[in-house]
Hints:
By secondary structure, the chain is of the alpha/beta class. It has 2 domains: about 1-205, Nucleotidyltransferase, domain 5 (2-Layer Sandwich); about 215-265, no CATH class. Helix content is about 40%, strand content about 15%. Strand 4 (about 105-110), helix 4 and strand 5 (about 125) form a beta-alpha-beta unit. It is globular, with a radius of gyration of 20 Å. The model has no long low-confidence stretch (mean pLDDT about 90).
Amino acid sequence: MDDLFPPVPQTLSLFAAAPDMIVRVIDTETAGQPRAQDDAVIEIGSVDLDLSTGRIFNPMQSFVDPAGIPINEHARRVHRITDEMLAGAPRFADAAPAFTQGIGTYAAQRASFDRDRLRFTGRWLCTYKLALRAFPAVRSHGLQSLVKYLPLDLTEVSGQLEGLHPHRALYDALCTAVLLRRIAGELGPRCQDGADFLERAERVSTEPALLAKFRFGKHKGSRLGEVPTDYLEWVTGQPNMDADVAFTARYHLKRRRAEMIARMTRGPVVAAL
């Protein structure tokens, strides 16, 4: 698993020595329209995570006026936010500033969704992509699947979860903060220091996802390391292939070539990124 996030020599006091290790873990619920430009944020929830201490604090939540954009019925069934709950909610322009004050780093599960709708500037970390690197053997990498199958201990935040449920913004933000802390505990020791962790985590978050399993075809459900090389080569040659699938196929092809060269030269395998 180390080749998914290769270790480097550490400095002492891994996270305590690094400045600005506070991450605002955020979640949004929306009207459920498929395109970001047509969608509307209807709830924002966040908590802060201090990666140097593991402390989760500063919970914030606000409903947001959807500005006339209708809520998709499927989305409504998922988050269960009603029109009555949104009555009198502030406009996005009025609600959003509280979530950007005093912070430069955000994290979210599948962060591109939240980033595209919130449009907050700064560093964004994707816990979904990072969890794929930290815990590739987990059955599924959706947030509630990770809560169940890792599992995540939510005892510390249980009081703040009361009265909420999955797919409410603050509930998901709290779960994601516990997940990010667990990811940092797994991947952080492979980094030089806290700044190196944030830099590498951001890079992973901007790349396509490195999938653990194949998503379709005769190898659906197979781990990518088990898929035949000729099939991976076919995948990389398809012009409209899903970006995550193509990225993962290229990664494993590069890894296999490195292993073949190492066997030929009887040297160590160089981890491929």
